Amino acid sequence: MSIGEVKATLEEANRLLDQGKTTLNEIGTALDETAGLVLASLHDSRRAEADKARKAIAEAVREVQLTLRVISAAQDSGTEFRKALG
After folding, report:
1. What is the rounded CA–CA span in Å between residue 43 and residue 20?
2. 38: left (phi over 0), alpha (psi -120 to 50) or beta
3. How many other CB atoms are found less than 10 A from the CB of residue 77?
4. How many domains does the chain have?
5. 37 lies in which domain range?
6. pLDDT of 78 strictly over 90
């Protein structure tokens, strides 16, 4: 694989990561809206199931945020490598 091909592959990977980030942001927005409704419904509940639901929602939100950070880090690394290739 030539340097030009590596650069092209890195650019394509960056584009695909952008698409993934856009999709994940949309998922995050929908999750935030849903979480708001669920948490409002569970507001006064002290049941174990309600506590489990609260924890699951919080974990899902954390996972979306973590995945977005990982995608950004991957893009940064790819960009650095592409720049190093000249």
Report:
1. 33
2. alpha
3. 11
4. 1
5. 3-85
6. yes
